[in-house]
Amino acid sequence: MPPSVNHSYFTARNGQRILTKKAKEWISKVQEIAKDEVKKQNWSLKERQKIITEIWTYWPDNRCRDTHNGAKLTFDSLEEIVYDNDRWVLPRYMDFEVDKENARVELKIYLKEDVK
Q1: Tens digits of per-residue pLDDT, 40-63?
Q2: Predicted TM-score (pTM) of this structure
Q3: CATH (domain of 21)
């Protein structure tokens, strides 16, 4: 699960927002998975193309959460691997459930032009 925006950054004394250790570790893991999937699926880096991202969230418990709270970190993590800039991402939150054994976020990513 991605850390929430509130748990992804801290503010330094100079006012600069800095990624937390937990956020950096999560980004690294996501990038590793993304690079493997890009290679397996013969996906090439998309530049200046709209990308639809369908999102399914599986929470570890029944606490009240927002599905979009980890989106910034998720989309930033995929830049320069899946697409050049996350401004081109069109998120679609499909569903959420509880999966106590395997909490996760699943993404299905495809070009908008592929939609008929």
Answers
A1: 999 988 899 999 999 999 999 999
A2: 0.85
A3: 3.30.1330.70
- Contact (Cβ atoms closer than 8 angstroms) between residue 68 and residue 105: no
Structural domain of 46: 5-114
Number of domains in the chain: 1
Sheet of 104-111, strand order: 89-98, 51-59, 104-111
Match 């992804």 to its residue by tokens.
8
Strand (E) positions, 25-72?
A: 51-59
Residue 85's contacts (CB-CB under 8 Å, 6 or more residues apart) are: 79
CA distance 56 to 39: 22
User: How is residue 32 written in tokens?
Assistant: 């590793």
β-strand partners of 46: 83
